[in-house]
Every structure is written in structure tokens, then in C-alpha cells.
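SAMPLE LOG
Freezer: B-3
Tube label: C17
Construct: single chain, 331 aa
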Amino acid sequence: MILINNENQTKPSLNLALEEYALLNLDLSQEHLLFYINEPAVIIGKHQNTHEEINHDYIQQNHIQVIRRVSGGGTVYHDHGNLNFSFLTQVKGKAFNDYRTFTQPIIQALVALDIPAELTGRNDIIVKDRKISGNAQYRRAERMFCHGTLLFNTDLNNVVAALNVKPDKIQSKGIKSIRSRVANISEFLIQPMTVAEFKQHLINTIFIDKPKKIHHFSDLDWQAIEKLAKEKYENWDWNYGKSPEFNFQNRSRFNIGEIDIRFNVKNSRVAAVKIYGDFFAQEDISGLETLLLNLPYEPNAFSEALATVNLHNYFGFLTVAEFLTLCFPNN
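STRUCTURE (predicted):
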């Protein structure tokens, strides 16, 4: 395993660009590990509607950045008290959607601090029924990364205030508020430590039986990373996107996460379609949106079109019947 040095950068757009650049350009025949800490930012899941995920007034008043990432899943809050990790590797077998393999080294490092961490649900690490980490994955051809947050001493009041959490998501997790179900790792430490010391503990534990190599990016690499950050991760169209009005919307929560689908129907055909949600996709959801475009807005036409694709590549283990129920709730 090779440790990636991000030169202690804390600019969110730069760190997300670095992660994507590393995925596409490094030799991943050996697994790479990246740690980074961001300035206050709300990080939006790839398939989510930014406008519906954030508290706009609070974001502006507190100068919190809003950036969309390339992986699916839900919106998260980053600040100097949150440590992010990313395992970059080649796709092997059923590695995509396998969170246990990638989170196990993190969990072992937490257990070494006498913190009873465990993986639960789709992608969360919890301690005593409180979430300390959320994880997501992204795949490009035969390359992928699995990345996650580690709430160490994050300002949890900002987590609550900056995010616009839907009541159905709160209800589905059996909770009364975000604040009651999330926690900082520092709350469970027997001996206090800084986030920098915690990061070093993770590195020491993960690399204990492995030779530690460190990858440094060249000046040319940094130029390319900065270019990607500016053109993509600091671009309004990427981070917010243009959200057209739709005359049909339906949202439902499945085992694979929430899906929010919106159609504009003209002359009984789909004139526009947009799919949002906190699901994890192996293929870009725009491919499915294109498939549905111009179809007659009726179940049989959708069913025939969906038979030509593998829906699991877009949503995970979702059936065609479940998707049709979302699109045609009254049938």
C-alpha cells in the first residue's frame, strides 16, 4: 500500500480534484491511501439536488463552501475536525459496494483505541449506536475508490444547521434528529489526542505489517490537479446544476437508498427527466436518464426499455418492478 501526500492542503475543491486525479493517473496495481482535511464545506452526493440538500441562508452567512463529489450517497459536512480517508484500488471481484473490506482497517485502528466501532447499514461506521463515519464509492472503468468521513471533533451544530435533512430520511432511520445519532470520535477516547495525532495513529496501525511508501505529486501533477479543481469542482454547473421545473415528481426510500425522480411530460412522452438520490451507482445515472427520454409515458414502454439495461449498475439491488412503482405510483 502507498500513502498519498496531499501536502496538507485543506481547500475542498483541490482535495476532491486530487482524489479524482489520483484515481485516473496513478498505478493502482498497488492500493493507495489518501487522507485529507477540508475547510468548512458541504459535500453533495453526485446524484443529489443541491438546492434541496442545503440550508442556503446558513451556508452563505457562515461562508461554507458547497461542492459536489463524484461518488453517490448522501450529503456530508466537512471541517477541520473531520478527517477524510480514501482507498484507491483496482476493481477486484465484487469490490464495488463492498464496504466491509475497505472500512475494516479503519475499524481496527479505532478498536485499538478501545473504541467499539462497527460497520452497520449500507455504509456507516457507528460507535454505541451513533454514527461517526459515512462512506461512499466511485468506479471508473476498472479503477475505484472507497472514501469516507471520520467525525473527530467536528462542530456538530454546523452539521445540523448546514444540512437540510428530509423528514422521511430521519424517520427511516428511527431517530428524532441528526444531533442525537451522530458523534465525534473524541467523545469516546480514553486519552485525549489531536486530529493530527489521530491521523498518525491510523497510518501507524494500517501500515504496521506493510512497507510504507509515500507518493508525492510532481509540479506538473499539481498544475493538472489545480486545473481540474477550477474547471470542475469550483464550477457552478457542476456543484449546483440547472434544475428545471418538472410536472411529475415522486420520491421513495428503498433498501439501496432514496430515489427522487422527476419528469416533464409533453404529448404523452418524456420531454425531460432527472433522477436524484443518495444511492450508489457504478454507471453514470445520465445513461438511464437518456434511455427514458422520449419514451411514451406509460409502464409498458418503460418496462421494455428497462429490459435492455442492468438496473443494478445504476442503483444496486433495485428491481425493475420497484423502479416502475416509483415512476407510476398509481398503477
